[in-house]
């Protein structure tokens, strides 16, 4: 009896301690966003005083948001960033799923070679190729524009998509595609009418991961933009461009950062339930 009670108390203590640890980690990760939001409402006099960083604003103001929206050309940049994100996601999903489908169904040696080539591309850091990419490829093929940015996002994002979709397709019975072939469907119709609906879960996961990456990305758009595209590119690049041009106002910068990350945070909260299941299923072979 004593041993049973001891085990019961031990399990209860373990649950409580685990909950406290998880709560502490969650609080640690969310604290930067909370302090950014708090400081975005502080006037200049309060925001430049570092001792006030962790304090609530005494005289809160919304002028930081209106000024930031005007300086970074927010609504134009928002639509441009949204368009780049949507177009890049569509390109990655369509080309990635087509490639993964063919590689998963082709039982030849070269299919494995191509698949492992995609895997090798995952471990190459972008920083090691960014200058040759921009100085040679982007300039030579006139990719220093929005369309070029979408092409580059597709190239960098397709490897992970192929890897995840390939593992998911391996779990789909081949008999479904054989039935579609018997009914007279060609490869393209089979892909869009049979395969794509079955990939909805993993494609949703890829959509979430790529959206968070593309929306928050600074390095690639900043390298791609032309010198004359001041205040006419993505949100985060416009914000960065204004930091060195206008008087440094920490509250205004915090307001700009908050207005940029809120849309993707809302998107993640709405879609997060699909991430774990999609990654788990994509890893099954």
Number of strands: 0
- CATH fold-type name of the largest domain: MetI-like fold
Radius of gyration from the alpha-carbon trace, in angstroms: 24 Å
Distance between the termini: 46 Å
Query: What are the low-pLDDT stretches, counting only 5+ consecutive residues below 50?
Result: none
Q: Tell the overall outline.
A: globular
Number of folding domains? 2
Structural class: mainly alpha
Biggest pleated sheet: none
What does this structure look like?
It is a single chain. Helix 1 (2-39) packs across helix 13 and helix 12 (235-243) packs antiparallel against helix 13 (250-271). It contains 14 helices and no strands. The chain has helices spanning 2-39, 44-47, 63-71, 74-105, 109-122, 130-140, 146-169, 174-182, 187-198, 200-216, 219-224, 235-243, 250-271, 273-283. By secondary structure, the protein is mainly alpha-helical. It folds into two domains: 1-52; 73-248, MetI-like (MetI-like fold). It is 76% helix and 0% strand.
Keywords:
14 helices; 0% strand; transmembrane helix; 285 residues; transmembrane; membrane; MetI-like fold; mainly alpha
Architecture blueprint of SSEs:
Elements: H1 2-39, H2 44-47, H3 63-71, H4 74-105, H5 109-122, H6 130-140, H7 146-169, H8 174-182, H9 187-198, H10 200-216, H11 219-224, H12 235-243, H13 250-271, H14 273-283
Helix pairs in contact: 1-13, 3-13, 4-5, 4-7, 4-10, 5-7, 7-10, 7-14, 8-9, 10-13, 10-14, 12-13
Q: What's this model, at a glance?
A:
The chain has 285 residues and is an all-alpha fold.
């Amino acid at each position: 009896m004593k041993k049973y009670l001891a085990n019961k108390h031990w399990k209860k203590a373990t649950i409580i301690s685990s909950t406290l640890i998880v709560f502490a980690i969650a609080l640690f990760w969310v604290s930067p966003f909370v302090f950014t939001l708090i400081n975005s409402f502080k006037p200049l006099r309060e925001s430049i005083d570092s001792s006030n960083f962790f304090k609530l604003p005494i005289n809160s103001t919304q002028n930081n948001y209106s000024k930031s929206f005007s300086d970074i050309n927010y609504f134009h940049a928002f639509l441009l960033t949204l368009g780049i994100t949507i177009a890049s996601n569509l390109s990655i999903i369509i080309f990635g799923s087509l490639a993964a489908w063919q590689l998963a169904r082709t039982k030849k040696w070269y299919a494995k070679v191509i698949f492992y080539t995609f895997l090798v591309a995952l471990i190459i850091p972008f920083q090691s190729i960014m200058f040759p990419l921009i100085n040679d490829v982007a300039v030579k093929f006139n990719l220093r524009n929005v369309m070029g940015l979408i092409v580059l996002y597709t190239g960098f994002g397709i490897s992970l998509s192929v890897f995840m979709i390939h593992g998911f397709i391996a779990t789909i019975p081949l008999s479904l595609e054989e039935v579609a072939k018997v009914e007279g469907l060609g490869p393209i119709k089979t892909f869009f009418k049979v395969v794509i609906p079955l990939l909805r879960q993993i494609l949703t996961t890829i959509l979430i991961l790529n959206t968070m990456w593309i929306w928050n990305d600074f390095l690639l758009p900043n390298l791609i933009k032309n010198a004359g595209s001041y205040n006419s590119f993505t949100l985060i690049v416009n914000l960065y461009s204004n930091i060195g041009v206008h008087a440094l106002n920490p509250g205004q910068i915090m307001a700009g950062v908050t207005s940029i990350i809120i849309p993707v945070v809302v998107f993640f909260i709405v879609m997060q339930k699909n991430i774990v299941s999609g990654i788990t299923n994509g890893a099954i072979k």
